[in-house]
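hey m, so remember when u said the tokens were messed up on ur end? i reran from scratch. heres the input so u can diff it against urs
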Amino acid sequence: MGTNFERARVWILMAISDLERVIRNFESEDFAAAVFRAQTSAERLSKGLIFLFGLQFKKTHKPTAIIKNVLDERQLTETQKKLVFQIISKAKILEEQGTIPRYGVETPTTILRPEELYDRNKTLELIRVTEELVDAYIRLLELQNLFPEVQPELRRVKVELSKLFPN
């Protein structure tokens, strides 16, 4: 498929598509779908970061664990480490949603549907986390002068996410 650099770029582009879906799903009040797409965007941004670290991985829904395990082995400045830590801490919050946005939660007596679990406020909380993740990711790319052609798209979608919040 190409270099790790090219793979990272493709993961970031897929994350941008997911972020656009977050916005559309939220605006149509499909809150569970918005959370699911926020979660997948976080996973994809994290996977892009793994490739930027020069690593390979098998399928995973917890890429932050991989990043955390190798972070100390990477030669990063303190600023870069701080940004990577911000990225993985925000992405982990979204990863922890697990299968809930798709399948709900099974209790001893019933199954709570995703639509029952994510209202406007809960979804906005998770979109705020997503926006903060994207912001840290943009700053890391800027700092390392990576993907200048992709940065404007990330900035655009970050602005669109911020418009979802009440003033």
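this time it looks ok to me. DSSP finds eight helices and two strands in the chain. if urs says something different then somethings off w ur setup not the seq
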